[in-house]
Amino acid sequence: MHFSELALNKPILKAVFEKNYESPTQIQEETIPLVLAGKDVIASAQTGTGKTAAFALPILQRLFHQQDVNKNAKKIRALVVSPTRELAVQIEEEFQVYSKYTNLRTTVVFGGTSIAPQKDILKKGVDILIATPGRLLDLRKQEIVDLGHVEILVLDEADLMLDMGFIDDVLKIERLCPEEKQSLLFSATMPAKVVQLARTILKDPERVEVTPSVSAAASVRQILYYVPKPKKIELCLHLLRNTIKGNILIFRRTKNGVDKLEQTLIKNNYKVASLHGDKAQSTRQVALNSFKNGDVNILIATDVASRGIDIDGLDAVINFDLPNIPETFVHRIGRTGRAGLEGIAYSFCSADEKEYVTSIQKLIKGALPVDDEHPYLLSPKAKPQVHKKKGSKHKKGRKSEASKKNKKRWY
Ligand code: AMP
Q1: Whose CA is nearest to atom 19 of ligand 1?
Q2: Which of 34, 49, 179, 184 is least buried, going by the fewest C-beta atoms within 10 A?
Q3: Residue 187 above 80 pLDDT?
Q4: At 91, is the pLDDT very low, low, confident or very high (cuts 50, 70, 90)?
Q5: pTM to 2 decimals?
Q6: Ligand 1 pocket, 50 CB below 6 A?
Q7: The predicted structure's pLDDT at residue 70
Q8: Under CATH, which number does the domain 3-209 receive?
Q9: CA distance to 21, 43, 316, 399, per residue, from 185 (Å)
Q10: CATH (one of 3.40.630.40, 3.20.20.80, 3.30.1460.30, 3.40.50.300) for 215-382
Q11: Contact 155, 201 (CB under 8 A)
């Protein structure tokens, strides 16, 4: 299919072609006609599928189409609610690109930065607002934002929004919008609570599902390392020195873990930036930009801080800690191996994370290949015994039967 078959207006198509998109992605092909037809949509799609354009293009089309006759010009007619600040910024950037040849105005508001400049822009009037829930409600409380003219409401990354505890805010925001409106809900996963939210908000929705997200796992080469928890840092340094090159995204489960690893890597002369929820918005944006610009080649992040962020040209993902939700693993590794390039995901599993491997393998319907030849495989106590075996047939002590038994002992 070609974009020109999607009934989009010339100014929008022009911007799309300038981005060198040749054809719509699956989610775009399925979602754009539904949104243009005014339907409510519930779509399961993760980042990297082109989901932002799947809602941005038809929203622009609908607003652009009515613009000349609409008395509500420069009133918020489309509202996109996003769970994280980085994601909100990214969505706004896409809207700016696609709306380049229209005179529709878009802006983004999010917490963690000064509210005054956001107020100034809003007072001048915008057609499309992208917002994180907290700041949006703040602005509404201060009567800077009026949601009474919203025609299209988008809830992006709904599963993350609920995981982050935004359910009440989201429901409040929805009630502040007119009853008669079009609602679109995008979510990477569809747990019961998202389905419940969809039932509350959407009217007779059309369902769109792009190729199950687990297929992302197929295009990424996987390597699993069983390693004692205290040795993970050493394994990471070892791999960075010897094996993993290029742009690397490292995931840790906790903010503290991100900080600790960042300090260690900096001490070892690596160029590193990091993202987590406790950092000020400006610091997070600087970190993300320095990674995107290539000033640093390693970014360490928690899942929440990095979810939905589109980073091109990733060579590798390191799962320094394994996520306890298997879908999160698929999101993480989906960042690499994009657009036909081979990516590699390195996953570290300590004894207490073994059950996570089981659920990940179940979800991706395949085994994660294990590298059992790295130097941190055995517990420190077990290792010398293996190396004492001089004259053994096994040149590498760690491949011996004794070592295999020891391996079993802890993972
Ligand atoms: P998203 O899933 O919205 O985060 O989009 C992932 C990336 O795909 C973004 O960098 C988009 O600019 C890009 N993209 C979106 N639609 C297309 C398309 N039809 N062809 C090529 N790239 C696209």
Answers
A1: 24
A2: 179
A3: yes
A4: very high
A5: 0.69
A6: yes
A7: 56
A8: 3.40.50.300
A9: 24, 6, 30, 51
A10: 3.40.50.300
A11: yes
